């Protein structure tokens, strides 16, 4: 009989730990850009252009880099890629990239 009790107690301890971990780590989500690319909140970064592919985005980043403008990319969904720069470089970046969406 004590073997059965030990197994039940072990099962209850594991179930309690599982519930405790679920309660601690499982209910909240970390805010940030959504994976589908439908958010426009990138903190200090601003969108300069939306390229049709990663290759086009990298070409735009190379142009910006030649002008000493730091940039990065973010997924815009459907294969498109956003090119982002800091606010201090936004006007110069837009002048280099040109009008419109690529």
Give the gist of this structure:
This protein is an alpha+beta fold. The chain has helices spanning 2-25, 54-66, 90-97; strands at residues 45-51, 71-77, 80-86.
Description:
- 44% of the residues lie in helices and 21% in strands.
- It has helices spanning 2-25, 54-66, 90-97; strands spanning 45-51, 71-77, 80-86.
- It has a three-stranded antiparallel β-sheet with strand order 1-3-2, with helices on one face.
- The protein starts with a helix and ends in a 5-residue tail after the last helix.
- The model has no long low-confidence stretch (mean pLDDT 84).
How is the topology of this model organized?
Blueprint: H1 2-25, E1 45-51, H2 54-66, E2 71-77, E3 80-86, H3 90-97
Antiparallel strand pairs: 1-3, 2-3
């Amino acid at each position: 009989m004590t073997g059965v009790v030990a197994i039940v107690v072990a099962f209850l301890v594991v179930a309690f730990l599982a519930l405790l971990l679920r309660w601690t780590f499982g209910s909240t989500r970390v805010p940030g850009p959504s994976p589908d690319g439908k958010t426009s909140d990138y903190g200090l970064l601003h969108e300069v252009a939306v390229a049709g592919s990663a290759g086009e985005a990298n070409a735009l980043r190379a142009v910006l880099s030649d002008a000493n403008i730091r940039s990065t990319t973010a997924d815009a969904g459907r294969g498109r890629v956003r090119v982002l720069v800091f606010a201090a470089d936004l006007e110069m970046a837009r002048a280099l990239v040109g009008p419109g969406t690529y």
